[in-house]
């Protein structure tokens, strides 16, 4: 009986050792494959890495091209348009501000209340509307009248806490994502339409002036304080 017990123990121990050996061999095999994979990736990374010196050359060359493009029209292969933005936000800004973003078949209006450095963004809300297809190929007056009408609805929904102090106009930032030639921080003439728009009588006109006329017709007490053009590379 004792011999049988000892034999069973020996067999069980041998089986456990064999299983452990298989597990260790499998893990070592996986570890070896992982080590080889890491070595391949490291070699690939090293061969693809761009030296810091070369990156600086590329950055310097791009800076030169940007300056050349801003200095004269056609002076660079880069498409450069002056923005007239000469400083950045400080974080101390306070009050209620509006934004209008016309970037394609949809446009958005935003109202944001800033509380300065300590308050940050106190409140914000936005609305979005689609541009009817017929207005994308109609007239400048019809397009901007439609935009002003939607903006008027949005302004009408604001609470009393967002009303500007007496004698002060609401301020609007206008993002116009089409090629324009800016003449100041809040004016710029349309060079050409893209993104499915084709309104001939807007080309060469000041888009801020067009929007301002439409807002005045709707009796919206608001002025465009900044114009921003965001262009796609393909444009």
TrEMBL record:
It holds the Pfam family Hexokinase_1. Pathway: Carbohydrate degradation; glycolysis; D-glyceraldehyde 3-phosphate and glycerone phosphate from D-glucose: step 1/4; Carbohydrate metabolism; hexose metabolism. SUPFAM superfamilies: Actin-like ATPase domain. Residues 41-228 form the Hexokinase N-terminal domain. One of its GO terms (molecular function) is D-glucose binding. Belongs to the hexokinase family. Its EC number is 2.7.1.-. This is Phosphotransferase. One of its GO terms (biological process) is glycolytic process. It is an enzyme of class 2 (transferase). Keywords: ATP-binding, Glycolysis, Kinase, Nucleotide-binding, Transferase. The keyword ATP-binding applies. The lineage of its organism: Eukaryota, Viridiplantae, Streptophyta, Embryophyta, Tracheophyta.
């Amino acid at each position: 009986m004792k011999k049988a017990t000892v034999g069973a123990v020996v067999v069980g121990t041998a089986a456990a050792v064999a299983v452990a050996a298989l597990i260790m061999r499998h893990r070592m095999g996986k570890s070896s494959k992982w080590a080889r994979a890491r070595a391949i990736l490291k070699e690939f990374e090293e061969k693809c890495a761009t030296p810091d010196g070369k990156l600086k050359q590329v950055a310097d060359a791009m800076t030169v091209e940007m300056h050349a493009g801003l200095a004269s029209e056609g002076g660079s292969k880069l498409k450069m348009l002056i923005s007239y933005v000469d400083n950045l936000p400080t974080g101390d800004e306070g009050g209620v501000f509006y934004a209008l973003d016309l970037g394609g078949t949809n446009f958005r209006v935003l109202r944001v209340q800033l509380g300065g450095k300590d308050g940050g963004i106190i409140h914000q809300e936005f609305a979005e509307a689609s541009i009817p297809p017929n207005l994308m190929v109609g007239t400048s007056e019809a397009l901007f009248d439609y935009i002003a009408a939607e903006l008027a609805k949005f302004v009408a929904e604001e609470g009393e806490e967002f009303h500007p102090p007496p004698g002060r106009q609401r301020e609007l930032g206008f993002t116009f994502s089409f090629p324009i030639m800016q003449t100041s921080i809040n004016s710029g003439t349309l060079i050409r339409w893209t993104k499915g728009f084709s309104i001939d009588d807007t080309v060469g006109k000041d888009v801020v002036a067009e929007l301002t006329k439409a807002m005045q017709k709707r009796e919206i007490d608001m002025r465009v304080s900044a114009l921003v053009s965001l262009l796609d590379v393909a444009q």
